[in-house]
Design a protein that fits this description.
Layout lengths: L1 H5 L8 H15 L2 H9 L6 H23 L5 E3 L3 H12 L4 H20 L2 H8 L2 H23 L2 E4 L3 E4 L5 H18 L5 H16 L29 H29 L11 H18 L4 E3 L3 H5 L6 H14 L3 H4 L4 H15 L11 H17 L2 H19 L13 H16 L1
Antiparallel strand pairs: 1-4, 2-3
Length: about 425
């Protein structure tokens, strides 16, 4: 039954590792339950309703990923996309949150159509193999940076942009202790090391004043204030088209980057570097976005934090259905789950970043024609705080370096430039020029 429902293979997988993987993924991305309502409420949306919608949309989309794609990836309203929704579309551009929700709905429907026609798969195949291999270490640096920043180990600086955080702060010391503990558990080969590190750090944070419990059980707020709130009269406007295209670009390449990066880490790719059941994974993402807009939240996307569950052994849809069940439980136990501080989840994010760096060995940096674009792809993800920008910049530089150097063929045919790659680069340049 588990094989039929979730693609579980008893010969190579264990139920224990799948369940631990699902719980670990949930704990590393549970911050979205607090962050998403906070961000979207800046637009005037009801904060309690957004919390409930965040949970429900994560349950629906992740369950589709588990049952249809049978992959260990979790979905929820995406970071970055929710900030664009609130601070750019609504606050800066002056549109209502109903306008933004309409744009997200249209984006989701377009993604469903692109997935059904196989266009999203063709876009992935147009990215050269060597660049696809660079995505995983780029994401590794990106999520490690997220962990360092959320823990306070890295802080902002007016003089240098970034600097070392306050090492006298108990919260920062707690995060460092969590990283060291989890590192030791990983070295010892302890199953569920990331999850144990999160839980121990959370408990130790109580006497330090970092972990705060505000109750255990609460009734989920109603989603009625934000459910099915669309501005149909603006569907055919130029402004709507611009918003939809921008959502499309960010979501598409965030998702492509996450799926390629985490799948490479999990060994879920064939000899050509193609991800298993990629079209099904795209469909889960597309349907999740569409349903999320109907419920009343920003774009739903595949989470890079899924890598934490993969790294403790999650390999099938059983992992993602466990994560979906955790989100369902979180509806009733929100105060308890939201008590887990960023300092506790930081260790998982940082160490998963370390694990994802192993793909970098497959990139030959001595071959500059491919090494330079791969470096651009890797380094731009953390520096621009965007997976999609890293991929876009990588593809653009790949084509330009090949054209300017007069190099059109590669010793590995899978890395040779082709018209599909050139078309992608032109599209990306137009995106930066006009969106």
């Amino acid at each position: 039954m588990l094989k039929k429902l979730f693609g579980f293979d008893a010969a190579t997988m264990t139920v224990r590792k799948e369940v631990i993987g699902g719980i670990t993924t949930f704990l590393t991305m549970a911050y979205i339950l607090a962050v998403n309502p906070s961000i979207l409420s800046a637009t005037g949306m009801d904060q309690g309703a957004v919390f409930t919608t965040t949970c429900i949309s994560a349950v629906v989309a992740t369950a589709i990923m588990a049952l249809y794609a049978k992959l260990p990836f979790a979905l929820a309203p995406g970071m970055g996309l929710n900030a664009f929704f609130a601070f750019t579309v609504c606050i800066t551009m002056g549109y209502t949150w109903q306008f933004a929700l309409t744009a997200v709905l249209i984006e989701g429907i377009i993604f469903v159509l692109l997935t059904l026609t196989g266009m999203r798969q063709k876009i992935v195949e147009a990215i050269p193999l060597v660049l696809r291999r660079a995505i995983s270490p780029g994401i590794g640096l990106f999520i490690a940076f997220i962990g360092l920043k959320s823990a306070g180990i890295v802080a902002s600086s007016e003089a240098t942009f970034l600097t070392l955080g306050n090492l006298h702060d108990p919260a920062v010391l707690l995060a460092i202790g969590g990283i060291l503990l989890t590192s030791a558990l990983l070295v010892k080969g302890v199953t569920g090391a990331l999850l144990i590190g999160i839980l121990v750090t959370t408990v130790v944070g109580i006497p330090l004043g970092v972990t705060h419990f505000n109750g255990i059980v609460s009734v989920p707020p109603s989603i009625e204030p934000i459910f099915w709130q669309f501005e149909w009269h603006n569907v055919l406007t130029v402004d709507m088209a611009i918003c939809v295209l921008t959502f499309l670009f960010i979501d598409m390449f965030d998702t492509i980057g996450t799926l390629l990066g985490v799948s490479n880490r999990a060994g879920m790719v064939d000899e050509k570097g193609n991800v298993w059941r990629l079209s099904q994974a795209f469909m889960a993402d597309a349907v999740g976005t569409t349903v999320g807009a109907m419920l009343g939240t920003s774009t739903v996307t595949t989470y890079v934090e899924s890598a934490s569950g993969v790294n403790v052994g999650g390999r099938s849809g059983l992992t993602s259905i466990t994560t979906a069940l955790c989100f369902a439980v979180a509806l009733l136990f929100a105060p308890l789950f939201l008590a887990i501080p960023a300092q506790a989840t930081a260790s998982a994010l940082i160490l998963v970043g370390v694990m994802m760096m192993h793909e970098v060995r497959k990139v030959d940096f001595s071959d500059y024609v491919t090494g330079i674009p791969c470096f651009v792809c890797i380094v731009m993800m953390p520096l621009t705080y965007s997976i999609s920008d890293g991929i876009l910049m990588g593809v653009i530089s790949y084509v330009l370096v090949h054209l300017l150097s007069g190099t059109f063929k590669d010793k590995d045919e899978r890395n040779s430039m082709n018209w599909a790659t050139v078309c992608l680069a032109i599209l990306f340049i137009l995106r930066y020029a006009f969106l």
